[in-house]
């Protein structure tokens, strides 16, 4: 049984008033003279999200479903629940929970593509808001993670012991290797990029600019290596607190379709401001910013619909902003069946009103929100 939606279709390079006809997949696009004021975008994809709606990935199956439904209400139709640096048994329990949700799905909910393993394979000297449980990516730990069958992205500091063999193993298992929480320099990042690509993998960066060395005139750092690469993708938390709009415009101009937005959202996203927690640590949410007691940024309370509005406010067109919250992430994750309004792709839609606020979300051709 087919359905249709009328609206302004946000395509890869333009906006066209039209009708999209679909069942579980998009079957046809038809231009219309007038389609009202709403916009039809491809469903958003968040490859780095710890929590939301009072729930955290580390809390298990029920919490993963809760955070997934929360973010779906903000337009996200594909989610990678993300771990935090914690004792290894806790990390493995979280991965098993993600695997369980992947296997059974969420009824009338978003797609859970797999897990982003952010920690514990990070530098103890670039923890950011990660708790102090960093460990090297030893071969046994790497195989434990891969064996869960759900890890799709791993954040890894390439200067760690065992890092080279770990990057090679993850790449060969079709896990995206994302450089982050790292003290590595330009040369170290370049070596990691070459190693992962040489192993047939896909390289990325975890929240570009954050928890890595900055760009300096005589010390270009890992940011320069990632931005100048022809193959590396990079996440960005564009809440305008983690990254200045000018830095966003620079990265976007250099990287183009290799830049993608993530939320890095934590438990308190969508909750009243005030005290909350992240990985067992007390944090304070105030004026839309999450900080540790010492003042450091600690994750975000961002949603992808707000990130899209921020991009438009920073000068991007709506089709360009839609790429940042959907199309580019689909390419990075190898999800060639979604990420655009195009025939034969999945019927995952986010409907926005004229002010770019979410009014409806469709997953697999069914209205889910």
TrEMBL record:
Keyword Ligase tagged: no
Annotated keywords: Carbohydrate metabolism, Hydrolase, Metal-binding
Family to which this protein belongs: Belongs to the metallo-dependent hydrolases superfamily. NagA family.
Positions of Zn(2+) binding: 118, 181, 207
EC number: 3.5.1.25
Cofactor info, note text: Binds 1 divalent metal cation per subunit.
Cofactor: a divalent metal cation
Entry's Gene Ontology molecular function annotations: metal ion binding; N-acetylglucosamine-6-phosphate deacetylase activity
Active site: 264
First-level EC class: hydrolase
Positions of substrate binding: 129, 210-211, 218, 242, 297-299
Boundaries of every Amidohydrolase-related domain copy: 39-366
Name of the protein: N-acetylglucosamine-6-phosphate deacetylase
Pfam families xref list: Amidohydro_1 (PF01979)
Species in which this protein is naturally found: Gluconobacter japonicus
